[in-house]
Structures are given as C-alpha cells and as structure tokens.
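Hey forum,

I'm writing up a methods section and want to include a predicted complex as supplementary material. The small molecule is copper (II) ion. I've pasted the protein sequence and the SMILES. Can someone with a working setup run it? I'll credit the forum in the acknowledgements.
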Amino acid sequence: MNRRDFIKFGGAAAIELSAASMLMSQAQQGMPGMQASAPAPEGAKADFTLRIAPVTVQLTPSRIISTIGYNGTSPGPLLRMKEGKQVTVDVINDTDVPELVHWHGLFIPGDVDGVEEEATPMVPPRGRIRYQFTPRPAGMRWYHTHTMAGADLHRGGYTGQFGFLMIDSGTDPGNYDKEVFLALREWEPFFNPEEDDDDDASASGPQPERPKTLDTSPSGLEVGYQMFSINDKSMGAGEPIRVQPGQRVLMHLLNASASMNRRVALPGHRFHIVALDGNPVPTPRDVDVIYMGPGERVDAIVEMNQPGIWVLGTTTDDARNGGMGILIEYANQHKQPQWLAPPKSVWDYTIFGRDGTQPAPDQTFDMIFEKVPSGAGLFNSWTVNGKEYPHDREFVLKQGSRYRLVFRNRSEDDHPLHMHRHSFELVEINGKATAGIMKDTVIVPGYGRVAVDMVADQPGLTLFHCHIQQHMDYGFKALFRYV
Ligand SMILES: [Cu+2]
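Reply by user p_vandermeer:
Happy to help. Structure tokens for the complex are below, copy them as they are.
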C-alpha cells in the first residue's frame, strides 16, 4: 500500500491526518511499509508499532484537551491488516500505569487478546510488549485499551486509546467512490448525578423482562461529558466530507464512547446498511437513523443525491450542538449547514436478517442482568445471575458445541454486550426471530431480552461484558472457559 492509497481512504481529514502521521512516524523509525512481507522474527522490526503516551486533541481552535492516545493522536492510526496473514505489533507504554491493547472482534488467543481476565500479559509502565497474531475475520474491527477505570476518569475507555482496524479479505468489490472512518466520541468526562443517555425508545417496545416491582432506591453517579466529536474534531472544526452528486460513500461508523449509546442521522439521506460489526448482513436495508452502543460498528453506503451542506450527527441535540457531528459538503455549495430532526424510528436489528432458524443448541445459558442501585457506594453495581464478577465455573464451554445465550436485561438501561474472541448469531430480539446476523456486540434494550447463538470454536478464556466502562468495572462481566 502506498501513501496515496492510504490517503484516499480518508474523506474525513482527521483520519487522513492520522494515517499520514502514522506513516511519518514509521518512516522516522526506519520501519518497513505497511506490508512487511514475512512475520518478523523476535528482534526484527514489527509490522506495526503503537506508542501509548499523553496526547493533545484539538477539538476546536480554542479547545485543546489532554488525554492518552496512540502514536501522538486520538483516534490512533488506522491499521489495515490482511486476513489470515500473521502480524507483529510492538506496543510501547510511555505512561506510568500498566496497559493493554485489545483487538476488538478478532478470533485470536487470549494471551494476545489484550484482556487481563484472559491472562494477556500487561504492557508494563515504561515498558513494551510484542503481540503476534493472525488477524481474522475480515471486516471492520477496532482496537482499544481494556484496563479498568473505576472511579478514575483518566483511565481505561475514558482516555483516547482507541483506533480503527480494518482487516482486508482481498475480495472487497469496492462498490463505492469514497470510504470514510467516523468514530463517535465524548471527551472531558465527569460524574453526573443525572441520568444522561440516548437510549432507544425502549419504553415503547415490548419489555419481556420488566420485573413486577421495580427497585426504586437511589441510583449512583453516572458519567457525563463536556465535549463531543467525530474522530478528533468537534463539528465544524475539521474538514468536511467533500462529495459530488451521484457519489456513493462507504461510511465505517464506530461508537468509540466509553459509555453512551448513540443515534446518528444524516438529513436528506438514508443509510444503506451493509454490515454490522464488520460482518456483511444477509439483507442490506435503508434506514434514517442508526442506533449504536459502545463497541458496535456499522458499515453504511450513502448515495449523495441531495446537494447542499448537511450535518451528519447524533440526534441528541446537546451532544450534536456540543460537537458530535461532521459536515457533508457537496461541491460548489455554500449554504449554511442544515440539520433536520429525522423521522421517528426504532432500531431493529432483525430487519437486516433473513428467515430461517438455527440448529438446536447443545445447551442454553440464561444470563440475567440486574442493577444494584448504589451497590458500589457512589456508583451502581451490576450482577450476572445474581453475582458480580467473578463467577466460578458457571459458564463452561465444550469445544465444537453450540450454545444459546439468553440475555435477560432486568434494568431500564440499554446494554451493549460484548463477547470476546468469538462472534455470535442473533436469534431473537424481544421475541422477534431472525437469522444470519453475526455480531460481537449487541444492545439488549431496557427490560428486553435477546437470544444469540455461539459456536465454541476458540478454546481459552473468553471475557463477556457490558461495553459501558462503568458497568464493566462494577460487576457486569463474566468469564467463559473451555472444559
Ligand atoms: Cu451496561
């Protein structure tokens, strides 16, 4: 891949910049190009290098924040790997705390997955570690820190330690004119006594898991944010996505938030959803609004057929006005950017599925999720089947077996649930059956129920958790193990 190819991927200047700065830093280190031809032997230069260190992010000309990022930026460099081709990644930790880099959505062993619970070695403070793995499956993945944050809003997912990872199959038909990578993101977190969320209209949907009596004791503090962006720029502060009428733009959307579910719209246009969590869907469909939880990715093609200057952004006014958006600018247009609230729509994964049923599972795991209001003092705690992490030997898998996981959400929040090192197939969302949708993270609506099937084909410890950092830190996780 040459520099021009690299630059071409970014419609958003932010990512062009990141990609360019990565190339520069690799050149400065005398590193080979992005496609080293053979796996590096111990001691040789790695295919990729990530340096964890303090970075500044200039969200607007006058708001420059300080956080921790990769290779001097946040998001970190866009990494492109070839499916099935082994890579080495050197991670250098220039901070004073142990760190981990997790490769979200990859089928790789626990010792390189970047998860302490799976026994991945930590990258020591001021130290380095080399990860070596064979990236698969193809599609849009991402990488991010996996450390606990707890009460420290300068750690873990609250920092800028995340980036895009594309695993190329080599068979992408390239059915688009332009490709952009867009990460939804909040900054400057603080503890907030008010509930601050963008959850779906769960209240209007079925609530099969709603208990007869609700625990009304006072809830703990949640996390709010002062600043918002897409990639490293608040809306209007970065380059717009420049388009021509008739172009097809492939948008790789990532919710890189530590805690917020988000809805996104682009007035005057519809999103043609082609993949969820990087995996092609059986039935691509058009939608007005995309709903995504932390960790989820959506690939959508947008046909540019409405000349003007438009706001692509979150539907939550405060967050959008605070910067979570990017301008779509048609050539030769000079109007004011337009935002129009989208038609009311409920996000329904099942419309992207196909008819059909899954083979009967060998075993079903019921997983009940409950909130303990203020269970951790200042904060809420969370239980899986009545217990906070850790669980002993409740979730034991036998290689080759098929499991049905029934997620029963007995809380009012929408939870994005993530399974490491495997993907699962959606079977049922609040009683609606579907097939063929493969994901690694799924939102279980408030008081809702979601069933997924998973084939146990990746032996080793496997972490399951809510991708909302605070929920994960206060109990909402479970370790699956193989017999
Ligand atoms: Cu959660």
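Some notes you might quote in the supplement: The pocket of copper (II) ion is lined by residues 413, 415, 466, 468, 471, 476 (CB under 6 Å). Residues 13-28 form the longest helix (16 residues).
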